[in-house]
Amino acid sequence: xxxxxxxxxxxxxxxxxxxxxxxxxxxxxxxxxxxxxxxxxxxxxxxxxxxxxxxxxxxxxxxxxxxxxxxxxxxxxxxxxxxxxxxxxxxxxxxxxxxxxxxxxxxxxxxxxxxxxxx
Length: 119
Description:
By secondary structure, the protein is mostly beta strands. It has helices spanning 36-48, 103-106; strands at residues 2-11, 14-20, 67-76, 79-88, 91-96, 99-101. Strands 2-1-3-4-5-6 form a 6-stranded antiparallel sheet. Strand 1 (2-11) and strand 2 (14-20) form a beta hairpin. The two termini are 24 Å apart. The mean pLDDT is 91.
């Protein structure tokens, strides 16, 4: 599985970001409070269907915004796939390759492992 890109819209501190990844090793670096952990949180969200930082999805929404969205593009088993998640007004919407899916159907589509000091 190769993560190709991730898009953040009003997700945590990111207003509108599109990040492309290399097929090799990728390194996120920067000063404190620049959004590195937000990117990791979005990636983890696709793998587990929830945040590792909060139980409330409303906490994922950037301050002052009505909702948020995250999207990912990746290659799995040689096939290009996408996952998207939208949260607006307490309503959730998940899609895989543009087709609406349930949270349960999203589990296992994208795999990731998280190591963090809190664990």
